[in-house]
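Let's study today's protein:

:::
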Amino acid sequence: MYRLENPDMLYLLVLIPIFALVYVYHMRWRKKSLHLFADSSLVDHTIPLFPKHKPLAKFFLFGIAFIFIILGLANPQIGSKLEEVKREGIDLMLAIDLSNSMLAEDLTPNRLEKSKRAISKLIDRLHSDRIGIVVFGGDAYTQLPLTTDYAAAKLFLSTISTDIIPTQGTNIAAAIEQSLKGFDEQSKAGKAIVIITDGENHEDDAVKAAENAAEEGITVHTVGMGSSQGVPIPIYRNGQRIGYRKDKEGNSVVTKLNEVMLQELAVAGKGLYVRATNSDAGLDLIMDELETLETAEYGSKVFTDYEDRFQYFVGFGIFLLILEFLISEKRNRWLKALKLFENKSNI
């Protein structure tokens, strides 16, 4: 198990592009100044030891050294002691809609990205609760089993996209059924499912699946993503929007938030329905409701001791800085005297 003790130090890596711009500007200024002194064809004769490639090599070494030193300051750590810790919490399964309609941009930047950001904030509010992630389209799949490893949950969350679902559609019933399979039947902890979707369900048994979950003591909450006015679904290629999805007749496909169906699901599942907006995704209201559920004690293995590894990164970074310092700004007169690449043919 790896972690960073000071992850905020990684923000210093944004200085690298600034260093690169300063280097490019300096080299252009240097070249311009040199041309004012002599024609480029005469540089080798007037300044025989003028370097051509060493400044780039020195800058490259400096950049790599800077990266390693910043990683050292972030202090990578490796878990060295694994112990079972008793915790109390609830079991929560998040079911995320990955149908193409979740790419609609009536929420900023789009429905799916808004959902992921809201879930990330929800994870920050968890303490000893177990969380799992189910993704669904035409079918449903467990992306992350129940866990208390919130760092892993955020990592899995970041990889979620509409591309990972092989079958398009919006099968909410399958999402509920898959979520139910993820719970530990022996656990006495309160259990809940949060479905995050635009509600464009293409199956008829979603409400029945929510009722079945409620009968098992598992509440089903729904979060509506999108607007009821309807918006087109964009198509992206290589990060660029190239158009909008169209039907067989060539008309733009419009996606709308189906609030009525999501409200029916929440009622059947004895949970809450909230509608997301650009200012509030609504998960705080659901989180307040989740905190009223009964907690249960369970054991989980966690690393309780970590060993620092910053010294390897800082040491290698300092080595590169020393190497960069030892590289002379001038050409090596002995290598130049060998004239290895000079054409000696008189033909």
